[in-house]
Amino acid sequence: MTAPATAGGSGPSRAGVSPGRTVSPRVNTDDPVEQAKAAIEYCFEQGWTDGLPVVPATRADIEACLATTDHPADEIIGSQPHLDRSVTVAQAAANAIMAGCKPEYFPVVLAAWRAVTQERSSRGAWQSTSGPAPLIVVNGPVRARLGINYAGGVFGPGFRANATIARAIGLIVRNGYGVRPQELEQATQGLPGRWSVCFGENEEMSPWEPLSAVGGVAAGTDAVSAMLIRTVEYVDNRSTDSAEAVLHDFADTLARMGAYVGGPHSSGGLVLGPEHAQLLGNAGYSRADVQDWLFSRAVRDPADMVAAGKGEHAGDGPFRMLPSAAAIPIIVAGAANAAMSMVFRPFGWAAWAGRSVPVEWKEQ
Q1: Cβ contact 319:182 at 8 Å
Q2: Residue 221 in this model has a pLDDT that exceeds 90
Q3: Which pLDDT belongs to residue 25?
Q4: Mean pLDDT, residues 109-120
Q5: CB atoms within 10 A of CB 181
């Protein structure tokens, strides 16, 4: 079993184990099940888990991950200078294995990590009192190839690739940067899905181009988009065939006062269920049309803001709760079995960078 770098770079390991050093729990049995249980318990004792059992990573596992990418093992892919900690490709591979990833998932993990860390809102986010969650969206043929769910239950459990790719990001932050709850992490309450929100976009049922095409990657290319979010809120509207009525429902949810934390605006995006997306598309709305409609109507009366103790930035007229039309990400995912969608709240005041990341496969 190979120890992950629990404090990458030159920082000390929480377990007192140097990064990459091979370690073995003491097991007085030849029973492979008991050996596996002992290895899992050993990982708990070292503080390498997120509260659930991890898959002990071997040197062979890490080499199998590294064989899927052209990135060198010692390449630094992230750092936190104020913590004196950094993360290498090999360390990311160890954490991906521990999260339960198959080696072939690793190029998507690397793309997801790059997509998350290029966001302006990620600076300091791992230690924010909000405890934001990465929302990871996968486009392209890789969805089918790796079994990344993009249909029913996309926010729920049951799909290995979805669950473990997202979990790998969390373990990299935990073991690479040493950011753990009630230690370096400062989340006041946190989120139940902090390290579990990863899904494919349902391109097949979307009336618009893929999100990755919005992010600058050609449609049909394997790509990952990501942003940090504070929460998701469902919008259940199966009572109307009016596109405008559904948009009004979305605008009302986006303008929720409780989501506004002060400053010049709130934040919001949509994961549309296919029924809502197709209703809007069939009514002639483009993605940009939907964004414009919501931006102009997701407003609050200044009196409401004052009543909630949030009137510092309120003027005389309606207060626009969203920063701009373009800053409302719109994704399509889920099953076409009910007219339900999700509003999500991008973390901080920084809009999605609008840059998707191509998945880099090893050149043959």
Answers
A1: no
A2: yes
A3: 66
A4: 92
A5: 14
Q: What is the mean pLDDT of residues 117-124?
A: 76
Residue burial 304-318, b: 16+ Cβ < 10 Å; e: rest: ebeeeebeeebeeee
In 3D, which of 321, 251, 300 has the Cα closest to residue 280?
251
3-state secondary structure string, 279-323? HHHHCCCCHHHHHHHHHHHCEECHHHHHHCCCCCCCCCCCEECCC
Question: Is residue 319 within 8 Å of residue 296, measured between CB atoms?
Answer: no
pLDDT at 23 over 80: no
Give the C-alpha separation, 239 to 241, whole Å.
7
Per-residue exposure over 220-246, b if at least 16 CB sit within 10 Å of its own CB, e if not:
ebbbbbbbbbbbbeebebeeeeebeeb
Alpha-carbon distance of 75 to 182, in angstroms, equals 30
Contact 295, 322 (CB under 8 A): yes
Q: What does the pLDDT average to over 263-276?
A: 93
pLDDT value at 45 more than 70: yes
Mean pLDDT of the region 249-263: 91
Band (5; pLDDT cuts 50, 70, 90) = low
Q: How far is CA 302 from CA 236, 299, 316, in A?
A: 27, 9, 7
Both tokens of 160, joined, read 């290995």
Cα–Cα separations (whole angstroms), residue 63 to 73, 89, 104: 9, 11, 12
**CB contact at 8 A, 97 and 1:** no
For 301, other C-beta atoms within 10 Å of its C-beta total: 12
Q: What is the DSSP letter of 31?
A: -
Q: Smallest Cα–Cα separation from 340: which of 266, 252, 247, 237?
A: 237
Cα gap 185→187, rounded to integer Å? 6
